[in-house]
Amino acid sequence: MISRILHGGDFLNLGTNLMLCFLCGMTSGDPTTGSAFGLMTKYPLIDGHNDLALMLRILHDNRLSQVDLHNISKVATDINRLTTGHVGGQVFAAYVLCGAQAKDAVRLTLEQIDVINRMCTENPELELVTSAEGLNDTKRIACLISIEGGHSIDSSLPTLRMFYQLGVRSMALTHTCNTPWAESSSTIYDVYQRENDSLTDFGKDMVKEMNRLGMIVDLSHSSWATARAVLQISKAPVIFSHSSAHAVCNHSRNVPDDLLRELKENGGLIMVNLHSGFVACHGQANISIVADHFTHIRKVVGSESIGIGGDFDGASKFPLGLEDVSKYPALIQELMKRHWTDYELSGVLRHNFLRVFKEVEKERDRQKAKGTLPSEAQIDLTRVQNPCRLVLRRPDHQTTKMEQMYSKGHSGLVVPRSLLLQSTEKERKCVHMLLCSGGPVSSLHAYNKDFWTEIAD
């Protein structure tokens, strides 16, 4: 109860319960009330990266009928907390483990796109959008779909185009593994090792095709060499969807100052990651340390190059006070204390990402006006080194024998007549495994076993 106020502590008879309630509200100890909430009401956050879809797979096997998306346990994201955190737009990642590369990554990615699509079309608070205009204009929480890792497209430009048709508007070129055409910042996997070839000719074709489509190129998880190569050729702005400042925390997933300057010249965006391991290389992560990343990047390239990509549900530890998506106002309040202006923060919250997205769409429209056709570039299969790839040829006597073998003795499965395997014994064993076991799948158990090791790098 407030008993002393003003004039050296003289007792005031406040007289009415209304005045008491007013004064109690003014003296609330909640540091996030007031200006941060007000600003975020006017400029709801567009967050660049969230892995709720992955957690729905791990915890619920994508069975949305068994989940109340308004209140989900064991995760950092649900509809109620997105609303509390003043999130107006969320980029949801369709992510599959690198262990699925050269196996069933495409199928798994399709299933993750499906769960995001269902989540965002079956709940009235959410809306699936595919354009900057739709992202800006919706009064609901907008959902954008991204793919996290080029291994999801199996080195195929037609697959990339079909993902775009399904609503994907951003793709990270790598995750924690190299692809046959781009290099990761991680050393967890030793696949597709190359020297002085961080972005191959096919990788350059990939970037150009993403520019033509109007798909945002995401460099988070890419090596610095790959990022620099992309910045040299991309005609549209690019993003780091969830990376922080290397000068503040010297992790390989973060971005050094010279690369930040190249990003600024490109007109691109770094969306600061909140994962404790990327913001505090030593000691306990807290809101102040996260704000240090924002302040440093602003000093190097200005506030117009900054956004927020929280990485919630894609990492295991987050700073004190930023444990889930409902806590974003606390971060904005800290930046306000550091004298960030409303104009700067409106950019960080949404306008900077909208600018980049619009520029990506403008480049798409420019190429369409010039009559640029879809790329027909194909990767050299010696780079892919995947014995399970099939080569389309006319059937011959050998194909007929294989058909008979599988149709008679292997669960009724038949090799299509139009498919002829390369004739090595290794390849025949591969098709046998694919047909008889249903393919080398990345099981739910594998997700639980390997997930935290992979994303922590």
Automatic annotation (TrEMBL):
Enzyme Commission code: 3.4.13.19
Pfam families linked: Peptidase_M19
Keywords: Dipeptidase, Disulfide bond, Glycoprotein, GPI-anchor, Hydrolase, Lipoprotein, Membrane, Metal-binding, Metalloprotease, Protease, Signal, Zinc
PROSITE patterns (UniProt xref): RENAL_DIPEPTIDASE_1, RENAL_DIPEPTIDASE_2
Catalytic activity: an L-aminoacyl-L-amino acid + H2O = 2 an L-alpha-amino acid
Transmembrane segments: none
Enzyme type, top EC level: hydrolase
GO terms for biological process, alphabetical: proteolysis
PANTHER family: DIPEPTIDASE 2, MICROSOMAL DIPEPTIDASE
Protein's UniProt name: Dipeptidase
Source organism (scientific name): Oncorhynchus kisutch
Chain's gene name: dpep2
